[in-house]
Structure formats: C-alpha cells, structure tokens
C-alpha cells in the first residue's frame, strides 16, 4: 500500500500560529486533542524550523523522491483516555516530517512502535505511513518539539516556544498516570511543561538516567516520570539502548498505569 498524504483531522484549515505568544494563546484555548493536532499542524512560530522542514520537503531524499512530504509540525498520536504518554525529541527530517506521523518512517520509529507492540500498547509492530492500520491503546506518543530541526538539534528557544503544545496535550489526557521520557533533551524540556500544567516539581530536579523514576503530584493526581535512553540510531546501533532495556521501561510503565487504575 503506498503512503497516504496526511490531512488535518478536524477539516478546514483554522489559521496559522506565527509567534511564541500566539502558541501560548492558541494552546490555552484548545478544547480537545483533535483541535490540538490541527493547531499544532498550522504552527509557523519558529522561522529556522519552518525554513528547514519546508526545504527538506521540497528537496527530498532520493529514495523518497516520488512521495509528497508532510513538511509541517507533527502532532501527537494516541487516544484521549491514555494512561501512558511517551515523549521524544523531535520529528526526523525524512521520518515524521515526511509521513506526518510522529516517530514514523525512520529507524527510531521502528524501535519504539515494535516495543509498544510487545508491551500490548499497539496493534502492530510497525508504523510506516498514515493509513497503515496502526492503532495505539492506552498510550499517547508525542515530541517535545514538533518540527524537524537541522542536525536533529532544536535550540532552547525553539524548545520553549513549542512547550505550550505539549503542556496542553498532557492536560487533555485526564487518565494520565505515567510519562516515559526518551532522552535527556526531552527530560529537560518536560520540567517547565509540567510546571505549566500545574504539577509540583521536586527541588533539585532529578537528573536524567535510564530507568529513573520520579513521582509528581498534580491537578489530576499522581504521575510517575520514567526515563529511558532515546531510541536514536546512535544509542541503538552502539548497544547503549537494547530491546530488553526499552521493554523493561515500558513494562514498568504499564504496571504503574494498571496500579493507578
């Protein structure tokens, strides 16, 4: 089955967001995940990221030259009743930026969706394109920064500009009990997001590490953060992150979510 070009789930285009202040206003007013996904997809608040994502979509990789790239910010994926959230870094230039689905179309996605399937959180071990039949259960997957960045490295300013989207996304998950954070960048990015969402943060803030657990109290009850090395090729090719290591973190997440009810 050929790749399917992604369309906004909520219908007509609702207008672009072009400034950091606009992100704050737009995210605050979002009533549900479908509207959030549409507004994220219409964000133009970071000029460097806009230029890069659109250049990549225009030039393309040779192996994908016949595909129409998404070339816009990439929304999260997963149901509103999810008790687990998985938060990564940012879309890959020829992965999510191409397919329009988070963690889809690159090796990082191969790892995370296979692990979610093994954990019983996905109905299939692969995510290749919109319309491939993938469905997630009890988990929402999102990124700290929604646009593909040059050299896979968003700036702190870009991270902070994007953070209201993630804060609102987490707030729209009323059953949320566990957040699996992939990598040190996501760990750092998440603390101001959680503060904005009303969680009481520990001082000093715990350092990132694989398998680190932190319990937080917030407006919807207790949430546990679980740290995991990122599913980047740098980590998976070198053996810093193995399948059993990732499986152990997701097994712990599902156990915690089940205990929380």
UniProtKB/TrEMBL annotation:
Keywords: 4Fe-4S, DNA damage, DNA repair, Hydrolase, Iron, Iron-sulfur, Metal-binding. It comes from the Bacteria. The keyword Cell membrane does not apply. The keyword DNA repair applies. SMART domains: UDG (SM00986), UreE_C (SM00987). Residues 75-250 form the Uracil-DNA glycosylase-like domain. Coiled coil: none annotated. Pfam families: UDG (PF03167). InterPro entries: UDG_Type-4/5, UdgB-like, Uracil-DNA_glycosylase-like, Uracil-DNA_glycosylase-like_sf. Belongs to the uracil-DNA glycosylase (UDG) superfamily. Type 5 (UDGb) family. This is Type-5 uracil-DNA glycosylase. It comes from Blastococcus jejuensis.
